[in-house]
Amino acid sequence: MSADTSSAPAPTAQEPAAGTAPAAYSPTQIVLHWVVAALVVFQIVFAEAMEELGEAAEYGERIGAGEALLGNLHIWAGFAILALTVWRLVLKATHGAPPEPKGTPATLFLMRATYALFYLLLIAVPLTGAAAWYLGIEAAGEVHELSKPAFIALIALHVAATIWHGVVLKDRVMARMLPARGRGQSA
Length: 187
Known about the structure:
Elements: H1 27-45, H2 47-59, H3 65-95, H4 105-135, H5 138-169
Helix pairs in contact: 1-3, 2-3, 3-4, 4-5
């Protein structure tokens, strides 16, 4: 009986060799990032419709179809954010992420803290919203409402860091989160 001498297939751009980090995020990770970002912006912009829907439900009032639609979309977008964030974390754990950019200990700490807070909010905010809406837990609703300024601050910090990397450091960090063409590669 002969031993199987076939070798495993060579790792692809999406599957780096064991112990090495990929050079860029996978296409799925990139799409998840931008879809979640768009959903979060939607949530921030149209949060007031959810407040109107909640007040109408609490006091037995009627609201317009547009507000009702936006309020219900807020609920479903929250569930989508939660599911897509969990998917993104699973992909990060199983497929890895590009190496961290170079920086000082302080800037690397700030970057890691920002990412940790983003993920915490992306999971906790939909859960607190669901707890408030479906279970009537007022404290969860209050925590949920506090998330809007926290998200705005983190988004501003994230965008400022991206601009800093692109304009000042010129290290192409943002290119890691763009489709292959945005990284100067062919599709």
